[in-house]
Amino acid sequence: MASAPAASSPTRQRGPAFILALLAAFAISAFLAFWLLDYFVIDAAHAGSKGPFGQLFDYDVETMQNALGTLAQVIAAVLGIAITVVSIVVQLAANRYTSRVTDMFFRDRTNLAVMGFFVVACSMALWVTFGVGKVFVPQATITVALLMATASLLLLVPYFAYVFDFLDPEKVIARLGAQTLDSAAPRKRTAEVVSEARQMRAVSGLEQLAGIAMNALAQKEKTIATDATVALRTVLVDYLPEKQGLPASWFALGRALRGHPDFVAMAPESLDELARERTWLEWIGLRQIREVFAEALKTLPEMTHVVAIDTRYVGEAAIDAGDRDVLALTVKFMNTFMRASLNARDVRTCYNVLHQYRQLAEAMLRAPATVPWITSALEEVGAHFKYYAQLAHGLGLGFVTETAAYDLCALCERASDAAAACHDRLLSVFLEIDKEAETVAEERALRGVRKAQAKLASFYLLSGQTAYARAIYDDMAGESPERLRSIRDELLSVTSKQFWEVVDRGTNFDYLDDARKEKLREFFAQFAALAALPPRDRGTAPYRVTGT
């Protein structure tokens, strides 16, 4: 359900090593070419009898005393350049993404190895300077010092390439996510009591990921914000299958956790409930996702869809793990997203959140029938859809009400196909969406809801479930003939399954295939009000809707 961050390609992993090999080969080739040219051609008379390589390592005392001091200065300069560049780049990355970047950098073995090599090479060149006497020349030591100095110079460019690659936002986020998951569910399990420090490291990791996402949103960097949100989701999704094997002490809320800003204002009873349900980590993780959602709603509304998708993935993982409490928690946060979107009167965000909310409910319908609490959970979700549809109608956001109606229509169809126990309750809720209007005018304004109900009636008639179609007929019997006719004609006029604008759902709410259109005509032919209209305005011949 959740995919791990993509690993770097072999080409990218070999990048710094390839650069180092290329530079070393070029430097050695250039030196040997000109050295051999001098030895055999240009200055052959003074070449001597030791051969080209014997002459190369024939160190002179006076020359070495003068050259080795400069060698130490060169390596020290290389070390200074490396430290300066790295410290600036790491500090900028820490300010931009998370303060954990510095800790990650100095825990990385490659960084420690390269910086350590620079220091050793500098120390080696410094000491060899004092090792050359008036007559004694430590040839092996000088050779090693020269090789280390050469390696230091050659390492500089590939090391910078490695540093920039190490600080790539995608990789920083992936490392932080992996560290957070390892704090929550370490690969090496021990029987010892879980320390509060480990709990706080996991919490800190979730907060850091959310911080990266919100900073990216503030700077309109959608890719980084998406990566950070996906990492948050991945931690929670990968944690769910592992939590069953964690010791009971991990789920206890000690003094450090109870004093955390996300917990300190909560009632002790609520904290005890989180500990009892073993959901404190998921609660904090989803709370961080909610903060990202709130920031996206203000600065980059198109990112709210991504946040809703990641929240749905957490809910689906809870279904797979059979964790009722985490699923209930996910539904609460979906409801919170809907409330925030309605308060902001953001129709597009409501539309997107409802799309993910419905898909989460469909995943619940696909759960094994042996899971006893799925039915009640689905009935609660249906009630939430009805509540937000009516709330949107009261706010004058008719399209949101219509969207919720069509999503409930789709849920009723899926529940019918799955023979789910919650189907009858979902249908009852669906027919109640337009029953809370205070005036007749408001009742008649809920046109989109009626279209969704008529669409569902065609589904029931096509599948032979005429009793359910009759229930919809009874609910719509009081409508005026003009309204019934216009609803019928609008549904019959839609010929394209795809909506004419670019939308995430892709399909047109009102689309029906030919078989369902025929059943729709039969459904509307039952209304006596339509039968009284002129023949050109009627449906097909009367089709008596009877019980099953």
Describe the structure.
With 548 residues, this protein is mostly helical. 72% of the residues lie in helices and 0% in strands. The protein is built from 25 helices and no strands. The protein has helices spanning 10-13, 15-42, 51-56, 61-96, 100-107, 109-129, 139-166, 169-184, 196-218, 222-242, 255-258, 268-277, 280-299, 303-321, 324-343, 347-365, 374-394, 398-417, 423-432, 440-445, 447-462, 466-476, 481-493, 514-524, 528-531. Helix 8 (169-184) runs parallel beside helix 10 (222-242). The longest helix is centred in the N-terminal third of the chain and has 36 residues, at 61-96. The chain is elongated and about 120 Å long. The two termini are 39 Å apart. Residues 1-13 and 535-548 have low confidence and may be disordered.
Sheet/helix structural class: mainly alpha
Largest sheet: none
Would you tell me the overall average pLDDT? 83
Task: Kindly report the oligomeric state of this protein.
Answer: single chain
Topology:
Blueprint: H1 10-13, H2 15-42, H3 51-56, H4 61-96, H5 100-107, H6 109-129, H7 139-166, H8 169-184, H9 196-218, H10 222-242, H11 255-258, H12 268-277, H13 280-299, H14 303-321, H15 324-343, H16 347-365, H17 374-394, H18 398-417, H19 423-432, H20 440-445, H21 447-462, H22 466-476, H23 481-493, H24 514-524, H25 528-531
